[in-house]
């Protein structure tokens, strides 16, 4: 099968969502003049080591984007298997002044380097200072980039000096309504290592 996106695919659901998988979930927490917000984004990833930088993409003008424009900071919370249901519940479209943390019962904590909340029991949280927002082609597509200014790691997720993803089983987005949990690892050495 071949299709040009502008011509449509002819399938019951858009296959693009299922092609680029698995995608980590950036559970973005922000604070704005109307309160605290948290929402999951499956277009998320790390983009640089030094300084450490991340990005996420918003395909609608959501509250997260408005808060980041206002404050120029955000926090990325890692989603563990234990948090998958509450993460999903936080994706509900709620009025801007509703605190999603309180609405879905997520315990929050304050960040150290930025004025924003974070998920208290997330395996990891990345405090970020906005570096740029790029408007992408389309009706409401934005890529948000941030420099990591602080990193929280839950102590029980560090084993033998390594942040052990099998200690919390991160959740990733596949296509459609499908998600996956990391349950096994394998290692590969690069040629010449």
UniProtKB/TrEMBL annotation:
InterPro entries: Flavin_Rdtase-like_dom, Split_barrel_FMN-bd
A GO term, aspect molecular function: oxidoreductase activity, acting on the CH-NH group of donors, NAD or NADP as acceptor
PANTHER family (alphabetical): BLR2425 PROTEIN (PTHR43812), FLAVIN REDUCTASE LIKE DOMAIN-CONTAINING PROTEIN (PTHR43812:SF2)
Residues of the signal peptide: none
Annotated ranges, domain Flavin reductase like: 18-165
Domain of life of the source: Bacteria
Full protein name: Flavin reductase like domain protein
Xref: SMART domains: Flavin_Reduct
Species classification: Bacteria, Pseudomonadati, Pseudomonadota, Alphaproteobacteria, Rhodobacterales
Pfam families: Flavin_Reduct (PF01613)
SUPFAM superfamilies assigned to the protein according to its UniProt record, in alphabetical order: FMN-binding split barrel (SSF50475)
